[in-house]
Fold each of these.
Amino acid sequence: MKKTYSMELAGRTLSVDIGRVAAQANGAALMHYGDTVVLSTATASEKPREGIDFFPLSVEFEEKMYSVGKIPGGFNKREGKASENAVLTARVIDRPMRPLFPKDYRNDVTLNNMVMSVDPECRPELLAMLGSAIATSISDIPFCGPCATTQIGMVNGEFVVNPSQADWDNGDLQLTVASTSEKVIMIEAGANEIKEEKMIEAIYMAHEINQTIIEFINKMVAEIGKPKHEYTSCAVPEEMFAAMREIVTPEEMEEAVFTDVKQVREENIRVITEKLEEAFAENEEWLAVLGEAVYQYQKKTVRKMILKDHKRPDGRAITQIRPLAAEVDLIPRVHGSAMFTRGQTQICTITTLAPLSEVQKVDGLDENITSKRYMHHYNFPSYSVGETKPSRGPGRREIGHGALAEKALVPVLPSEEEFPYAIRTVSETFESNGSTSQASICASTMSLMAAGVPIKKPVAGISCGLVTGETDDDYIVLTDIQGLEDFFGDMDFKVAGTHDGITAIQMDIKIHGLTRPIVEEAIARTREARLYILDEVMKPAIAEPRAQVGKYAPKIISMQIDPQKIGDVVGQRGKTINAIIEQTGVKIDITDDGSVSICGTDADMMNRAAELIRIIVTDFEAGQVLTGKVVSIKEFGAFIEFAPGKEGMVHISKISKERINRVEDVLTLGDKVTVVCLGKDKMGRISFSMKDVK
């Protein structure tokens, strides 16, 4: 049955075609918003995947280049590996939806979003978020939805609902909020130092709009939604928990997890697991779910300790941050380095500077962004958590963490005019036990300052956790969660910013939403912790950006020339500019507007290159004194090259104050001479004199 539903959303019509395409998927929605079209599908396997203790959800965001009238770049000429934007979009869809599937569901589920047409006024990412929720809600896949997503931008101090791509890219706020009919379930934000109260206002503006979308989805579900299918539950039997408590008492489990040393806790749990394996050796059914059962037992123990006893596994107070340390310049020869340590979380960030020609080129659906000047990369090797596995390159988590830190730092970076460099920061995770992404923001801020990048203000980040009880007002917010509290808790609320406001937020939860008091408390708590880190930890390590880039960093001279003279500097087939580069060893970049960047490590050679360019683009007048090299000798005089591709002639009568019969009597090829410009001769050539130099 084909049916079309529509609603007005932020001044445009959102239209959803059901039953028109992809009928064999469990659920499918062909989404239209303006001229943007996204096909969202939800499919599930018939049986659970064996041997796993997690819900196998896959989310895809496929950027088809035909949607913006492009043929993909490269030799292959077809879409390949998912772009960074596609990965980040898939994560933003995954994070709010995953907690709404049953916790004991082990069937494979894939949410696929194919971008087929892009209208710059209607971002396809938003359509994919809504389409995934609609396709899943109307399908027979078990799902405690619906949920909805709204994006808020800010232009000239005013909020914009579901902004155009241009307003999203150039505004002061990029906020994405997902909600159920009752609560906020996901927040993702990048901001230009937005005040906390303003951010909360924007979050709940989005939440209110989400309610209208949920009503729209509920109407579809009521009319054409499929009955949810039954599934094989992977829940741990209650009688097994009872037997476990007889073998390992709650007091013993509490003692096992109550330590601030991760390795000690893991060893304690290993011993407990072996004890239970021995006890249940005859019960194959229980042995099959023992790992999940031990996890659940730990979880219940930790949550009870925190919520009822206000005891954290490492003994800290609820608002207490783990021991902090910061240092700079620990890696020699790199352009900038810094390390930030919080408990057993340790990040070292290295900064590398390069000329603007080294910016990252972006081939995607956003026509406003074709390059990235600042790149933040985050690495998470297995040794950081005491494990062993080969490195296979960054996964989606690493890409997400790097993008979050990048988003947090972009608002404080200097402009290209102020600092004409491409900038790359790489955060290496040395040790991990909670919120490495926020530690990487702190380390990166210090590394940038150590490299001499004149950032406007330092940025720090911190994460808050949450443990909830049976009612909405039975909860506790934890400052600076460690890995165990993240693992067994209900929330990871990361906030980064300066003294003056928020620059990034990422909120993940495992429950069906947060009340407004929890959101407000988490934002207030992270601000308090952020200011402490900025003032008491980072500032003593490095208080402000260094006045100059480091010894091993490239230096850059910027100059402006008449765009009409670019051809003179470049020369035929690049002959002139290549000659300058060969003479001086520098790197030269010229843009179409006449901006010239000269990059090198030898200041004298850089100045020489700048002088040569100035000579080439200058219209010489009589009286100017220059130094050049004899490159050709004729009977009537000598030709002097005073810059690559620029020559003038000294007539034989202007070489010496005494009369000479032959030019060779005074000059030989390669001689360096000083000349004064006499203007242009009848043939339009620059004419020089050696004898009239004063």
Amino acid sequence: MKTRLIILLLSTLFSLSARAQYPQIQSGRYGVFVQVDRLLHGPRFALERLEAGTREWERVYTNDDAPRSASDLKMRLMLIAPKNPLYDLPSDTLATRLFRQFSAAPTTDSLFAFGQHPQILEALGVGYLDTAVVAGRRYDYRIRLADLPADAPIRTTRTATVPDAQTRRGRLATTARSLHHEADGRSVRITYLLKKTVPTLGGMRVMRATYAQTDFAEIGADWGFTKGKKDSTFAFFVDRDARRKMIYQYVVIPIDLLGNEGQPSDTLTITNLRDGEALPVIAALKATSDEKNGAIRLSWQLSSTNDLRSVEIWRSTRYDDGYARIGSAQPADTVFLDNRVEPVESYYYQLRPNGTYGQMAASVIVSGMVKAYRPAVVSPSFLRVSEGNDTLRFSWQRADFDTRGYYLYNSTGPGTPLQPYSGLIETRDSVIHFAIPTKNLPIGVSYRWAVAALNTSYHVGPKSNEVHTSMRLPDRVATPFNPVVLRQEKGVLVVWDNMKEIDPYIAGYAVYRVETNQKETLLYRQTPKDRARNAYADTTVQPGRRYSYRIKAYRTDAKESAFSTATSEYFRPLSPVLPLRGIKVLAVNQGVRIAWDEPLDRNLDKIVVYRYTDKTDRPRLIGTLPGRQTEYIDREATPGIAYFYTLVAVQPDKRESDPTDPIGVEWR
């Protein structure tokens, strides 16, 4: 008997509470179910899906009109059933009852237990099970009304991640505890009490193993649910494929209608026997260390000695294979000493009873070891550490011949005790190498390290010499923010945000200057005495040139940040060239003498003298003089002609002053 009409059986067991938010989304083994609304008889909608890492929304479903009859509803339920192995094929009675409730119900809450079943919600047009998804991937869903324009408001659900086989386990809170079982040689029946049941409980996965022979595997047992007193709920299954005289172990896992699993139940061990067929079962097999005899002591218990002829002892150094027969015990024996063992070596044992008609069910496998009690007195030696870009590499020499492994210790300060950092590093090499990714260590902390050996008697010896490692710093240096230029009397002041408030490991800043059409050049790199000030005064700027600045931060490990953004441009125009003053023109015997006051600007490159007459339109250059000269004699002047003179001062960069006012000569 395979019971699948879970919703009918549980419809009176659960009280439903209205959900506060919708649309709702739930993922499981068989897909992602989206419940669009609680409102029945609503408008048509379109469901769209977006896979994480992509940009295109894909329409996956558009709902049909509401079912118009019980037969229409039944057909929809039948078409949906193949999507999920936990969905049932509906009967006429169920379809009629459901359609009657649907016709009168305004919301899914009015459908009682039916309002929680994904198959029914999809058939009624208020939900959709999306099976075209991949386990382990993340999806977003959004809903738009099918008859509205594309720019109409959209309702978007929260993100759903499809669980894989590992993450499905434990998503369901329902648990099962075995109450009683029956076996009659033909089948096995077990009943469980369910805790924390939910309306969407879909069934149970029944796992079976042949005792001491096979691993657990799911079987197709018949199962169902029953109601008990005080709203208690029970589950049961019947294994009709169980063979006679076989010992089985059973575990059940509750699952909901989307395939999410609860925690496994307790494990039951059952022998499928008829009445009067009780066979010997080996129980309480133990392997203990007998140091006095240098042996492993095996002890066990027998449920009976009926039909028992002997008990064979099998041993291996591996759990899974390699077993060999090492001895045999009489039916009345319950102890065996294995003295052909080496100390501190693991061995695995299994007992195989022999009956009149062949070998019976073997025991479980147990492990044993002879302990050693040697004290640990030698410490590891020559501990060293090297620091790479992303790894700390340790090396040391073996402590003693019976060393089993090592523990690595560390501490963050000279006054704090060393604490275990690693688990047991199992090795018997003479030189040990061990690496730690630096990403596993906190930022900004320096350590001291040591190692200690664990011997075969599980005693920890003294610690090795200590080594030290420098603190790990962030991968990136914070880039300075908001550099600005402030004009000063003797230059400019460049100011930026104090980045040590963001990155406390910054040791200083480097200031770069950019002139027009040139690449930035390092202007100044701070020293420790600057104390990482977030300002720099540039007194080397020249008038007439355009400057901007960019900043980098650096740490003590010489790692630098990226360039900051550039400041606004700084420009101070050149001062004008001062014209000559006090010009005097006088006719002399040699010609015309032009004299002027000593120039105020002592950096003049030259003085240019122009002459013209009232009959000429343009002045003619008649002399170029050194910048410090204060007179000039025009020896080419012809007496009696009216001449006019003007002078221009010229800087070394070829900038000129304004011409002086023309001054004429008077002949006597």
